[in-house]
Amino acid sequence: MDRWKVVVNDLRFTIVGIQVRQVRKTTAAPTCKLLVQRSQKEDGVNGVTENCFTKYLFPMYPDLARHFFKYLHKTGKCKNKHINLSTFKQQCERIMAMLDDNAIIEAYVRMFTSDSDESIVTPDGLKNLLYISYKLSMDHYPEGPQTCLMINKTLSAVINGCFNKKDTHSVGFVVRWLGEHCHRLIFPVHRYCVHMLATRHRDIEAHVESNGSGAGLELATPVLERGAWHAGSGALLPVSAAWLLAATAPPVYSRPAKPPPAQHTGGGSAAALWLARLVCAVPSHWAPLYASREHGLGANRFLHHTLAYRGPTLVVVAAEEITAVIACPQEWKETHQYWGGPDCALIQLYPTFAVIEQAPKMLYLNTSIRGYPRGLRAGSDPRKPLLCVNDDFDSFTFQGVPYTIQAIEVWGCGDQTSRENQLEVKKWQVREAERQRNVKLSAADWIEHPDRYLLELAGRPQYNTSAS
Fold first, then answer.
1. Are 313 and 332 in contact (CB under 8 A)?
2. Fewer CB within 10 Å: C terminus or N terminus of the chain?
């Protein structure tokens, strides 16, 4: 009986997959036809022109529209400046049917290649692509459109990491580098393009003036606590750096919240729900747990604000020359052994962005156990850890180079329950300390108490024993 259940479930998911592929193949047709109609009316051309493509499909992102249209024009091998209906529809359906991660990244990297050589990527071309991804994510920020003054520094760090002072790279190299370090940066652009190709015809048909912002499309941008990155406590992790880390660290750090339960709406609802999950995501909530500039720099301060948080955390360690991030997927603990799951990671954020290492059992924290190294460490090789913070938390070494710590921050990447539970534990600790402080000793207990012996050594051997 269980075997038949497995067969039925496999068949059901196969049918859902077929339905989704059919939806993807047909959803671009209405938009394609309406763009041709607009091009005929406004430009007098029997096809899709770049003018109408930009005006009606991506009005808020003309740079994306220009590169997208150029890519469709080249891959369709068009001889005229416009794209005929059949070619345009075929190329759009090909992009909408993409499911392989590398194929998606390669397609959008090729869109932003050099105008003179489509196999070459320049730093400016990659920076334009990444800026569009950032702009899309910030325009769809759950709390409204956001801006970040540090975006140029953040994008420059990525470009420095990819190009390493070189003028050009091949498409294959850039695709491999993005796939290794921050492949999820490209997916918001793809989700947005698919969403617009599938739904934009509704606005065009209704003649509704729309800004093309893609209402209803939520992208996986982490939600930082309001005001946290505007205040001094969030100086190390501006919103652009959070956007970059969310696309770099394993998904557990930006894991979407559970979607609302699906309502039964008849046939095809499963396929529609599955398709909606591909283009929509409810972002997680990142909360500041510890900031040395606000709470003080020291091991005890770090432990007080970080321990008992039962969720993923990001530890940002900053010096004047460099900023590194330790990604911890579980609750921090003090031990003389290296620990951590496969989602542990060490990332260099500034001035050159790179994922240094991602491996299990690469975290170490010890401030009290004698006979073992003190401080915080990260690296899978205990004999040569990549990052070492000393026990005073005032200096660290990164890949063997010493630095002086300017600031440390810890961000909680779990749900709101993790933060609430941590605060409850802290309240209990305060209550327990007050209770222990107010304990009254009887005369018999005081005779054997070690504090009595210490006072006698200090020169106070006489006590009032009249009560006894």
1. yes
2. N
